[in-house]
Specification:
The complex is a heterodimer. Chain A has ten helices and four strands, in the order αβαβαβαβαααααα. Chain A is an alpha+beta fold. A four-stranded antiparallel β-sheet of chain A has the order 2-3-1-4. Classes of the chains: A alpha+beta, B alpha/beta. At the A-B interface, helix 6 of A face helix 2 and helix 3 of B.
Chain lengths: ~300, ~220
């Protein structure tokens, strides 16, 4: 004969706690998803930016811009640490200006010419030395994108900090909710707890009768939250169309990237049920032991 | 009287009050040795249940000294209470059976909380249920038991772990005279085997039949009769 549960699960149901914890886990998944996406986007942007530089050659009075551009290209291409230096033709340059100037002809306008420089990331060129070498070219200016990279890094750090703060707030809220629920369960079963004390039960024994329910609640809520989170990313990926950028592409990247990245993403997301279970179990146990310890 | 294995309870000038209310117990002093059998009598409201609550450690005295098994209850830490409580069996006046557990599980509760496995106590519990006439009701829940059956289940739970001290609050209050006599014999038998007994009762017939000393409590003061 299997002995009945000493603390009945019908008294003080944990359904509300399960729902609230599932919502918390869902929000945690979104915050973790945002962290992964920001981290990945920044890595991709900054590695591209670090690898590429641009040389801008402005038209100067009394110089032949074609000659100056070629001179700049030759100097750069021969510079140690530079993989390639390609002159963008005028139509490519015009294309870059389209967002501001439209498709009208740029003939007659003193549009600067650009050279795309790809550097060796393993052995990058000495930037001050390259800038000095380019002083021989009239109107040339080296743009290393460092300013943009710094801006992006700053923005990414801010977004990451916000995500971490959200995760922290979720944890604090979850702990507060579990404490409240634990007290409710104890209150609803006060007569049983008193009797258990009187027949010689230790606090740890009574706590074990209750905290198993919190363990199951944490695990269930965690998996519901992760399930909803994955469904949300899937929905964003499918409904966002086939664009190569934006939230839709990022969501697709989160779910269907290369195995090494996917394992990392899924590992982080599936840490949520583990964390929820631990929060439920530890908080409930600590609350129970503190409350039971003040009984006679 | 010397402490040692022989003295189970000792109260010296014990007083008890609830909050800022009047003193329910005043200067209660008495000692109980191993193997003693006392009745505790007195009119309703005299403080019998409060005295028993002190003795099964549900309350602590507001003054005086209470020693149980040589331990000063006033200085006993919360973590040491279970060790003392496991040596005491209690029959509560209001039974305090758990309605969601079967009669069997209710009776087995003290063994279960002591960490014993179900297979180790199953036989003992069924034998005791049989003895108190509840073998047929072992799977029933307390709400479907009569008052007398609940009383017997509560007594069975109090004695199942073979306590050294048995405290009972009106243990025959809800049973017929025949069963009351059987229960008295159970208490006398347990006492003969070494269990110290203190039974609070209004049942003068029970007291007469047992021919044991009586502690009479009236207006919070205790006298040995």
């Amino acid at each position: 004969m299997k002995p009945g549960a000493i603390i009945p699960s019908t008294a003080a149901s944990l359904t509300s706690l399960t729902v609230t914890m599932a919502v918390m886990c869902y929000l945690a998944c979104l915050a973790i998803g945002a962290l992964i996406l920001v981290d990945r986007a920044v890595t991709s942007w900054t590695s591209g930016l670090s690898r590429e530089m641009t040389i801008q050659v402005r038209m100067m009075r009394g110089t032949d811009i074609v000659q100056e551009v070629e001179k700049a290209r030759a100097i750069t291409a021969a510079f140690p640490g530079v993989v390639s230096a390609d002159i963008l033709d005028e139509s490519e340059g015009a294309k870059l200006l389209e967002p501001w100037l439209g498709t009208r002809s740029l003939e007659g306008l003193p549009v600067p010419r650009l050279i795309r420089v790809v550097s060796d990331t393993a052995n990058p060129p000495n930037i001050p030395a390259l800038e000095e070498a380019l002083l021989q070219v009239k109107g040339a200016r080296l743009d290393t994108h460092q300013k943009w990279e710094a801006e992006l890094t700053r923005m990414a750090r801010a977004l990451s900090a916000v995500s971490y703060a959200i995760l922290l707030l979720i944890c604090v809220s979850a702990i507060a909710i579990v404490i409240f629920a634990t007290r409710a369960v104890l209150q609803a079963n006060r007569h049983i707890v008193d009797l258990l004390h009187l027949v010689g039960a230790r606090d740890s024994y009574i706590a074990r009768q209750i905290d198993g329910r919190f363990l199951r609640t944490g695990l269930l809520a965690g998996f519901i939250g992760v399930g909803l989170g994955l469904f949300t990313f899937l929905l964003l990926g499918l409904l966002g169309g086939g664009s190569e950028s934006g939230v839709a592409a990022a969501s697709r990247g989160l779910l269907f990237s290369t195995p090494s990245i996917a394992i990392w993403s899924y590992g982080l997301l599936f840490a949520v049920p583990g964390a929820a279970t631990l929060i439920c179990l530890i908080t409930a146990r600590v609350t129970l032991m503190r409350r039971l310890g003040v009984a006679t | 009287m010397e402490w040692g294995d022989t003295l189970v309870l000792r109260l010296e000038n014990v007083g008890l009050r609830y909050g800022d209310g009047p003193e329910i117990l005043r200067d209660v002093s008495f000692a109980v040795r191993t193997g003693d059998f006392y009745f505790l009598t007195g009119p309703s409201g005299a403080g019998k249940s409060s005295l028993l609550k002190l003795l099964f450690l549900a309350l602590r005295p507001t003054r005086g000294t209470l020693r149980i098994f040589g331990e000063d209850v006033g200085s006993l830490s919360h973590s040491n209470l279970p060790t003392i409580r496991r040596r005491i069996g209690v029959v509560f006046q209001e039974f305090r059976l758990l309605d969601h557990l079967s009669t069997y599980d209710n009776v087995a509760l003290p063994l279960r909380v002591a960490g014993k496995s179900e297979s180790s106590y199953r036989r003992d519990v069924m034998d005791l249920l049989d003895w108190v006439g509840l073998a047929e009701k072992s799977a029933d829940l307390p709400p479907v038991l009569s008052g007398g059956e609940k009383q017997r289940a509560a007594i069975a739970r109090a004695v199942i772990a073979k306590p050294q001290l048995l405290l009972a609050d009106e243990p025959t209050g809800n049973v017929d005279p025949v069963l009351a006599k059987r229960l008295l014999h159970l208490f006398l038998e347990l006492n003969r085997l070494g269990t110290t007994m203190l039974i609070a009762t209004h049942d003068k017939g029970l007291v007469r039949q047992a021919e044991r000393p009586v502690l009479h409590l009236e207006q919070g003061a205790l006298n040995l009769q």
